[in-house]
Specification:
Length: about 270
Amino acid sequence: MRTESRALQKIAEGREAEMFAWDEGQVLRLYRSGFSKVDAERQALLLRAARSAGVRVPAVYDVVDMDGRAGIILERLEGTDLMTVLGRQPWRLFGIARTTGRTHARLNQRPAPDGLSPMRERLRRKIADSPAVPEEFRAPALRNLEGQPDGDKLCHGDLWPGNVMISGGEPVVIDWSNATRGDPDGDYAWSQMILEATEPPPWAPLLIRVSAKFARSVLIALYMREYEKIRRPHKQRVADWGLPALVARYDDGIASEYPRLRRLIEKRLNR
């Protein structure tokens, strides 16, 4: 990791990192405090692995230290993630849902590159080790997880419209922090869980917050329909992956989601 120091111009930010303009055609993804150079190096490795599998992702140029914060220098792609587009242009919901479904299905058809950790093990750690997971949900989720296959396909681990952008007319998948090797039905279940559990943030446009329930149901239905045109999932296996996915989501620490997660988990357990 090389050490850098220069004035930076912020161009975007997210929960994990801030994005800054860098050299021509490049951006710096600078991680927030709490993330280390190990996190940055792992993200760079995952991006390179995804690129080697033929997925359209930003090229990685270097891993750097900026005033004690870890960062990655990436290819600068002109475009906006689809969730931001939806917030600005809600009428594009249908096309955004279809693009997300197609992109995810094609990604899940690709063999995972060597070196990616197993998805089942990642979820097991999140469920078994996280203090955020309610104790009454831990054992049922682990039992469900033990019955699932390992799989050998590329799994993104966080694919939703916020992690897909259009650049040069093509969808590009971003944020590979959770990429694994595993059963694509599990990755599909995880994305369905995100779409079910995520609440619009307070800063979202009023129209999005007011119409969230309707928009969520349309988004999920169209995403699933488009995904299943390209890759036919095993429906029961997707359902079985659902409980571990919901319980593991607690480990991500998004407290605003906890009430909805609890309702969705209790509904599954009481069937």
